[in-house]
Structures are given as C-alpha cells and as structure tokens.
Amino acid sequence: MDWTEIIITVASESIDTAGNIALMTVPYGIYIEDYSSLEQEVQEIAKIDMIDEQLLAQDREHGKIHIYINSGNNPAEALSYIKERLSALGIEYEISVGSCDVESCLENWRKYFAPIKVGEKLLIRPVWRDDFEPEDRIVLDLEPGLAFGTGTHETTRLCLQYLERFVKKGCTMLDVGCGSGILSVAALLLGAESAVGIDIDELAVKASKENARLNNVQDRYTGIKGNLADEVTGSFDIITANIVADAIIMLSSDIEKLMNDSTVYIMSGIIDSRLDDVKAALPETVEVFDMMEEKGWYCLAARKKRQD
Asked: CA-based angle 143:110:5, to the nearest 5?
C-alpha cells in the first residue's frame, strides 16, 4: 500500500521551526536531513574522521523535512497547514509531493536515523546501526517502526532527561501514549521495577512490547491498548505523557487517581502557545515544580502539592 511522501526544503536556519510545524500535522513518520553540522555530529556519535564523499557533497545551506502520511489520512490537509504556517512566518520553502510503498519509505527513513546521546546516561541506538561508541552509557536498542517516531525529537529527549533525574530503583511507571515504548524501556533500564505502556494504536502497543524484548526487560513491561489511561488502575511513582496538548489536558483532569503522594507527572509534546492551557488543566492539588524547553517545545514535571 502506497504512502504519501511530502518533502519540504527550507534554509538551514529555519529547519527547526519548519520541523515543528511538520510535526503538528503528523506526529510520526518524519525525518529531517540537515547537514549544516555534519562533521561535528559524526565526531560526537561515531568518533571517526572519515566521512562518505556523498555526505560531504550534500547541501549545507538548506535542509529537507520528509513527512510520510499513510493511506488512511488526507495529505491535502497537511499540505494546506504547512504552507499556511510557513508563509505566515515568512519562511521561504519548496514542497514536493510523491508516493512510495511502505518498504521504500522505511528504507529511506532509516538512512537518517543515527545513534544519539540523551542526557548524561543514555544512548539511543536504532537496531540496524553499529557505528557508535557507548562511552559507559546505557544503550537502548530501538526498532521504532515508521509510525511511532525515533525518540530523537525534542519532546522525547526532554522526557528522557527527566527520567534520568527521577527514576529510582524499584519505582513503578505509567507511560500514556507509549508509541514505540522508548520511555518505558528507558525507565526500566534506569532501574524502574515495572512499567505499563498504553496507546490507542494496537500496532504501537505491539512495537513497544518488541522493544522491551530487544532490551531484555519484557518481563517487567506491560503493554495495553486503550484511550489515555482508561484501562489503568492503581497508582504509579512516575507518569509520562509525551502526546499532544489536548490529550494531556484530557488526561490531567483525572490524573490524581493515578498519583501517590510522591508521584512525578511528566508532560511533553507541548508547544509554547499551549503551555498556559496545559498548566491551567491541572487539578488544584497538582502543581508544576520544574520545566524544560527546547526549540519551542516544553516538558513539565508536576506533583501533588505538599500539605503544610
């Protein structure tokens, strides 16, 4: 079955803004070609000096954003939104639209997914890449699947940094909108006793279980198909919601029943224009105590207010 491939070309200095706009149209199946910092990135990750001549010949002044839209969605809506937002921001762009079968899309996408360091402890490695140096980091092997993202976007990286900070040995975790399961698997590798991932997409749940198996934590991971946290009972020490603002707002209205007195509730996938809406949706007994931002995306850490 063919997918639609949209390629947006913009100047390198606009690639982050354009990428954020693209992600709002479809929160999966996206990768960015940006060679403006090629040598530095290769050194940081692969620790090699020789770079393929084809890579060296790539345009350093412009970047390309590739979006894949499956046959069940309408690419015309995504195109209209992208053009409107880029024009409103005064960003010059070129757009091409084509089609590709799933296997071709997947192969193209895989070429640009490299191992990446996150925070102080983690390194995310796509299972088909061996060109990396662990450097005493915890290696998370990931088969993300085209529809569930790579874990390299700002929203996921910010969540992973909070997990490094808040995961304690023996804690329990709930991951709402688990996708590939990257957050759950990371928490388990960092020392969590158990993790529950829930997603409305049955394929996402299947992918998360497979990634738990790849990292040998399948015995401590439970994947559930469901809407937000409707299928979940009990309380958890850490709750993550790396989804869109509207879904976080819906989840937050009833989040207290899943929290104990020391639970850390991590929310991500929030663009700057929705930050206040997400904060306002928290129950009166829950407050944001820490916040991180990267390239216009926010990640919040909240907990129950302490009783004096």
From this structure: 115
pLDDT band at 46 (very low <50, low <70, confident <90, very high): very low
**Cα–Cα dist 220/90, whole Å:** 49
Do 37 and 134 lie in one domain? The reply is no
What whole-number distance in Å separates Cα of residue 81 and Cα of residue 193?
43
Gyration radius from the chain CA atoms: 19
Say yes or no: 32 and 134 in one domain. no
Sole residue written with tokens 């004096």: 308
Q: Are residues 82 and 121 in the same domain?
A: no
Which range of residues forms the domain containing residue 106? 2-110
Q: pLDDT class for 99, splitting at 50, 70, 90?
A: confident
Of the residues 48, 80, 110, the one at which a domain ends = 110
**What DSSP character marks residue 270?**
E
| Residues 6+ away with beta carbon under 8 Å from 38 | 51, 55, 56, 58, 60
- CA distance linking residue 4 with residue 67, whole number of Å: 8
Residue with tokens 């063919």: 2
Would strands 2-11 and 62-69 be described as parallel, antiparallel, or unpaired? antiparallel
pTM of the model: 0.73
Helices 75-88 and 15-25, axial angle in degrees (round to 10): 150
Opening angle at CA 93, ends 158 and 52, nearest 5: 65
Name every residue whose Cβ is closer than 8 Å to that of residue 53 and which is 6 or more positions away in sequence.
none
CA angle 16, 92, 40 (to 5 degrees): 35
